[in-house]
Amino acid sequence: MAYILAVNAGSSSLKLTLFVPSGNLSAQPLVHHLTASITSISSPPAAFTVKPAESDVGSSPEKFRDIKDHSTAFSHFLEFLERDCGIDKSKIGHVCHRVVHGGKYDEPVVVNEKSTSQIARLSDLAPLHNGAALSVIKVCSDALPNAVSVAYFDTIFHKSLPPHIFTYPINPEIAHERGLRKYGFHGISYAYILNAVSKHLSKPSSSLNLILLHLGSGASACCIRSGKSYDTSMGLTPVSGLPGATRSGAIDPSLIFHYTNKANKITHDPTLVVDVPVTLAEDVLNRKSGWKVLCGTTDFAEITEKAELHRPDTDGNEYRLAFDIFVDRILDYIGAYAVKLEGKVDALVFSGGIGEKSWQLRKVVSERVKCLGFPAVDEDANKKGGSGIWDIGLDSTEKRILVCETDEQYEMARQLHETFIESK
Ligand SMILES: Nc1ncnc2c1ncn2[C@@H]1O[C@H](COP(=O)(O)OP(=O)(O)O)[C@@H](O)[C@H]1O
Ligand SMILES: CC(=O)OP(=O)(O)O
Ligand SMILES: [Mg+2]
Q1: What ligand 2 atom has the least distance to the C-alpha of 10?
Q2: pLDDT tens digits, one per residue of 94-114
Q3: Counting ligands in written order, which one lies closest to the CA of residue 245?
Q4: pTM score, two decimals?
Q5: b/e string for 75-88 if b means 16 or more Cβ within 10 A?
């Protein structure tokens, strides 16, 4: 039996799913074997959770102080597989790696010396991601020398962005020479969600206009027009757009020079094991901003709990401020995208850790977008939750409000299975 391992290096987490091809192409071609996630990698101790396919819930998180970065998290997972699950790692035939920034790549690429050095060159454009993914790719290639590894890029899904959206109004020669344009990220997640919504609504994806929200440690919005990415909130790098756990999101670009007059000094942060040379400006905006500096926590559940949402006046409550900032910036994009879609929106979709779990955030955002023709929220469906993909709007006849549990690992493994296994 040859397994497919899908590895998702997020900014603060490493998520891994082991799949087995079912051999039945007409039904479900891939079967989940187990999923593990290591969270809080950037704010130790990291927490390790496992969820075998047959169980609905994961194990209680186990804390590990010796997991201090993505590559040690990956080694820990491989040891766990062999020691606790009795799975011989040489049975892993293919590995899919999520790589956030793919620059000019417009399709996935087999990991080899050439593609690895290209991915490394893009590291400073995704300082929280590409370096971490590369460190995992390196450990993985050493540990699984016979497996075929393929890199899947977040950016590929957004190759449909039109020029007036991906172009920044700056000197075109410099922009072209240095690749300074909007790329957009979370594309593997958006590809999965688009498929899931198409199935849920029983409509071909090419007919769908959607506003998708991927709200996790990194958060973004995507405007889908006729089944393709038409606009998205992240830009040249994942720092733009919505704020996140440690990221500022969009700010006035001049702000950083008023914040620090050493903005362009290169920093080598000793707490980052992967040495990506970034400027102090980028370090501030990527790692020393967002919920962490506003509230001292990156846990949005804690922020929501302490935000006193029932009170109209909460002056001085930093949790409420963070919550309100997030809602405000999310509304910016929903409003803009609804207009770009000329009001013809089939669904607004919440996903990512916060989008899938925070019924409070969904409730507040949904109430504010009623003016665009979205239905009132069904309190029960919203609070109770569900699995896979479900409606939370009271009226599901026209514009829908959906929650979708995204699965970037599945999306990569599905694509890998299609190109490397099914077609053979
Ligand atoms: N019950 C909850 N309510 C609100 N936010 C939550 C809840 N559970 C988890 N989260 C948030 O989800 C985020 C992680 O989302 P996820 O998409 O898994 O992140 P990553 O970007 O690391 O892939 C965490 O920052 C956490 O704050
Ligand atoms: C692109 C991005 O921000 O990814 P993540 O949310 O996984 O950190
Ligand atoms: Mg993620």
Answers
A1: 7
A2: 999 999 999 999 999 999 999
A3: 1
A4: 0.96
A5: bbbbebbeeeeebe
